[in-house]
């Protein structure tokens, strides 16, 4: 994230929105994914998507 913007400056709102949209789309896909032959949900489990906190 730091590489995308000047240090101490917020990221552009449009970029933040795009990142969130793509993350939500990926989660939606994983949650809705089914076995092509049976139609049963695959039950994909993803890792925690919470941002890391500074120490």
TrEMBL record:
The highest taxon in the source lineage is: Bacteria
Please list where the region (Disordered) is annotated.
32-55
Q: Which InterPro entries match?
A: Kinase-like_dom_sf (IPR011009), Prot_kinase_dom (IPR000719)
Recorded hits in PROSITE patterns, A to Z, give: PROTEIN_KINASE_DOM
GO terms of molecular function: ATP binding; protein kinase activity
**Where is the Protein kinase domain positioned along the sequence?**
1-55
Compositional bias annotation for Basic and acidic residues: 45-55
Recorded protein name is: Protein kinase domain-containing protein
Q: Which organism is it from?
A: Pseudomyxococcus hansupus
| Organism classification | Bacteria, Pseudomonadati, Myxococcota, Myxococcia, Myxococcales
């Amino acid at each position: 994230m730091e590489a995308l913007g000047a240090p101490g400056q917020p990221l552009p709102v449009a970029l933040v929105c795009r990142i969130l949209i793509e993350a939500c789309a990926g989660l939606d896909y994983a949650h809705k994914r089914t076995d092509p032959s049976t139609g049963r949900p695959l039950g994909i489990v993803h890792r925690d998507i919470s941002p890391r906190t500074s120490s």
